[in-house]
C-alpha cells in the first residue's frame, strides 16, 4: 500500500506533534498512526523571504513533516484575506462579514499553486494524497495541472452553505470547478453534502460529495480528564468554585461560535431565574484566534465589554458569575474541568462539527454525568439528539435550557448521556479517517 500524504495549511508545531492540540490535528494523527506518511503544509512562519521556498523536512514519530514559510504578502492575501476574511464567513453563512478582494483571490490561487509545485517532487507514484479544508480548495486542480496522477481526496472541516449563498462569492464557479477535480470529496454532515452537490449540479460537475463526520479519540480524552484532576491548577480551581454548579464553554475566539449570544444567554439565566444567582458560575475559555483579522478584533472588544458588564451587574463579594480566559489552557486541565462541569455549553451559530461537544461527553463520569446544551446548527447536533438542543441566536432559549439542565434528575442525565456516549465512541477520529481512506484508495485512477 502506498504512503498517505496529508496536506493541510495548519500543521501541528513540533511540540504539538507529541501531544497534538485541536480537532483537525488529533483526527489526522490517528489517521497516520501505523502507516508510512508525509504531512505537508505551512510552517506557521509568515516572515518567509523567498517566493519559491524549499520545504524543511523533519521526521517525528514515524511521520515525515515537510513545511514551508509564507512571505508576509502571501500570509496577508492567502491566509488572513481570502481564507479567513472571505471563505470563512461565507461558509459560515455570514455573507455580510465578507470583505471581498479580487487581489486576495489571486494570492490564494498562487499559494495553492505554490503548495502544488513544492509538494510534487516529494511524491511517489503510489502515494494517496488527502487534502484538508477550505484553505486548499484549488490544490488538487493545481496538482493535476502539473501532471500528478495519484488519487487525491479532499475533506472540508467547515460547513458548506446553500448554492444561493456560496454563489454570491465572486469567483465561486471557478472554485467549484476546482473542487470538482478531486477524486473523493468528504463533508461533515448530510446538509453540507446536499449543499455542495446542489452547487455542482448546474455546472455539470459529476463528482458527488459524501458524508464522513469527524470524531475524537474518546478514550484518550477520558484518560486526560481523569489524570488532569491531579494538577495543582485544577485543584486551585476546584477550591475557588467549591460545590457550586459550573457551566463550561471552550472555543477559539471566533464569531462563528456564538459567544456574545451565549454571554447574553447566561445573563438572561441570572435575570429570569433568580434562584441561580450567587450559585452557578460560567467558565468560558476562548483563546485568541486569527487576531490580525479585523472581524476577530472587533469580536474581542465586544466580549471584553460584555464580560465586564455581566460581572459588574451580578458579582458578589464572594461570587464571580463569569470567568473569561482568552489564553490557551493545557489539554489535560481542560479535559478535567469538562468532567467537573455540570453543563457543557456549546452554542455556535454555525460549525462544521464542533469537537468540544464530543469532548465534553467523553469526559463525563458515568455515575454522575453532566448535561450538554448544544446548538442545533453545530455539525455534531444530528449525532447528539440527546443533548438539550437550542437555537443559539435566542438568549432566552439558552437561559431556559440552562435552567432545565441545572434542575435535571440524575436518571434523566444518565439516560441522555449514555446515548450520547454511544455516538461519541462509535464515530471517532479513527473511524473517520479509516472510512474516508477506504473510499479514496478504492477510487478509480485518474485518467
Ligand atoms: P474549531 O475546529 O473551529 O476550533 P472544534 O470544537 O471542532 O472547533 O475543535 C477545537 C479543538 O481545539 C478541540 O479539540 C478543543 O479541545 C481544542 N481547544 C479549544 N480551545 C482550547 C484551549 N484554550 N486550549 C487547548 N485546546 C483548546
Ligand atoms: C478550524 C479550521 C482549521 C483551522 C483551525 C484553526 O478548525 O477548520 O482548518 O486550522 O480552525 O485555525 P487557524 O486559522 O489557526 O489554522
From TrEMBL:
CDD domains: GT20_TPS (cd03788). It comes from the Bacteria. It holds the Pfam family Glyco_transf_20. Belongs to the glycosyltransferase 20 family. This is Trehalose-6-phosphate synthase. It comes from Rhizosaccharibacter radicis. The lineage of its organism: Bacteria, Pseudomonadati, Pseudomonadota, Alphaproteobacteria, Acetobacterales.
Amino acid at each position: 500500500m502506498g504512503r498517505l500524504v496529508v496536506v493541510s495549511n495548519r500543521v501541528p508545531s513540533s511540540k504539538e506533534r507529541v501531544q497534538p492540540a485541536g480537532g483537525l490535528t488529533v483526527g489526522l494523527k490517528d489517521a497516520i498512526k501505523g502507516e508510512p506518511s508525509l504531512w505537508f503544509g505551512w510552517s506557521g512562519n509568515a516572515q518567509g523571504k523567498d517566493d519559491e521556498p524549499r520545504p524543511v523536512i523533519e521526521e517525528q514519530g514515524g511521520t515525515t513533516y515537510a513545511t514551508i514559510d509564507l512571505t508576509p504578502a502571501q500570509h496577508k492575501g492567502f491566509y488572513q484575506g481570502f481564507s479567513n476574511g472571505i471563505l470563512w464567513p461565507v461558509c459560515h453563512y455570514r455573507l455580510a462579514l465578507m470583505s471581498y478582494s479580487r487581489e486576495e483571490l489571486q494570492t490564494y490561487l498562487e499559494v495553492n499553486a505554490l503548495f502544488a509545485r513544492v509538494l510534487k517532487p516529494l511524491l511517489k507514484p503510489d502515494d494517496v494524497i488527502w487534502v484538508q479544508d477550505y484553505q486548499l480548495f484549488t490544490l488538487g486542480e493545481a496538482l493535476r495541472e502539473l501532471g500528478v496522477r495519484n488519487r487525491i481526496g479532499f475533506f472540508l472541516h467547515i460547513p458548506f452553505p446553500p448554492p444561493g449563498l456560496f454563489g454570491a462569492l465572486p469567483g465561486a464557479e471557478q472554485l467549484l470547478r476546482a473542487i470538482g477535480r478531486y477524486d473523493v470529496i468528504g463533508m461533515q454532515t448530510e446538509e453540507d453534502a446536499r449543499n455542495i452537490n446542489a452547487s455542482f449540479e448546474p455546472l455539470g460537475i459529476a463528482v458527488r460529495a459524501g458524508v464522513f463526520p469527524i470524531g475524537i479519540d474518546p478514550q484518550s480524552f477520558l484518560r486526560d480528564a481523569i489524570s488532569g484532576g491531579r494538577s495543582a491548577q485544577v485543584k486551585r480551581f476546584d477550591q475557588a468554585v467549591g460545590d457550586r454548579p459550573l457551566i463550561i464553554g471552550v472555543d477559539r475566539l471566533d464569531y462563528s461560535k456564538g459567544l456574545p449570544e451565549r454571554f447574553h444567554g447566561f445573563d438572561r439565566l441570572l435575570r429570569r431565574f433568580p434562584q441561580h444567582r450567587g450559585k452557578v458560575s460560567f467558565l468560558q475559555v476562548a483563546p485568541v484566534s486569527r487576531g490580525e483579522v479585523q472581524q476577530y478584533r472587533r469580536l474581542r472588544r465586544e466580549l471584553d465589554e460584555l464580560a465586564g458588564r455581566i460581572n459588574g451587574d451580578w458579582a458578589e463579594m464572594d461570587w464571580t458569575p463569569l470567568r473569561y480566559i482568552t489564553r490557551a489552557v493545557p489539554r489535560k486541565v481542560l479535559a478535567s474541568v469538562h468532567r467537573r462541569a455540570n453543563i457543557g455549553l456549546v452554542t455556535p451559530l454555525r460549525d462544521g462539527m464542533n469537537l468540544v461537544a464530543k469532548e465534553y461527553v467523553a469526559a463525563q463520569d458515568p455515575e454522575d454525568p453532566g448535561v450538554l446544551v448544544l446548538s442545533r446548527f453545530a455539525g455534531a447536533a444530528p449525532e447528539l439528539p440527546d443533548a438539550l438542543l437550542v437555537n443559539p441566536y435566542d438568549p432566552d432559549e439558552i437561559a431556559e435550557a440552562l435552567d432545565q439542565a441545572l434542575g435535571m434528575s440524575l436518571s434523566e442525565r444518565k439516560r441522555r448521556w449514555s446515548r450520547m456516549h454511544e455516538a461519541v465512541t462509535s464515530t471517532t477520529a479513527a473511524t473517520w479517517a479509516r472510512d474516508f481512506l477506504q473510499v479514496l484508495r478504492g477510487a478509480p485512477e485518474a485518467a
